[in-house]
Amino acid sequence: MADPRPVRIREFADAVCELLDLPLAEHHRRTRVALPGLSEHQWSLLTRDHWYADDRVWESTGVPPGPGLAVRLAEAADWYRELLLGQDRIRTP
User: Fold this and answer.
1) Which residue of 27, 42, 60, 65 pairs with 38 in a disulfide if CB–CB is 3.0 to 4.6 A?
2) DSSP 8-27
3) Taking the model in full, what pTM does it have?
């Protein structure tokens, strides 16, 4: 995620759920329904925080890391709504 600081997966999920007016438990349920083939290992990769040093990427590309999660999420709000609420496979299990 193009953010100047690391963002925990829970912080990101909470922000998306707030944006969609969706309880976190319902988000988890819908994610499992939408991605039924995920192994426990794959689920773990999606739901646990992983930290990577990214300062060299920003330096090498000369691209700034961005304004942060809140700004980027607000910019992408319509996309998230359409993607996550506009598909029948997500909306109804």
Assistant:
1) 42
2) -HHHHHHHHHHHHT--HHHH
3) 0.69
Secondary structure of 44-65 as H, E, C letters: HHHHCCCCCCCHHHHHHHCCCC
Assigned domain for 73 exists: yes
SS3 16: helix
What integer pLDDT is reported at residue 31 of this predicted model? 82
Tens of pLDDT, residue by residue over 38-78, are: 898 998 888 888 877 778 888 899 988 888 888 888 898 88
Amino acid at 55: D
Classify residue 3: in a domain, yes or no: no
> Does 82 fall in a domain?
yes
**Domain tally, the chain:** 1
User: What range defines the domain where residue 79 resides?
Assistant: 9-91
Residue 57 domain-assigned? yes
Tokens of 49: 């925080």
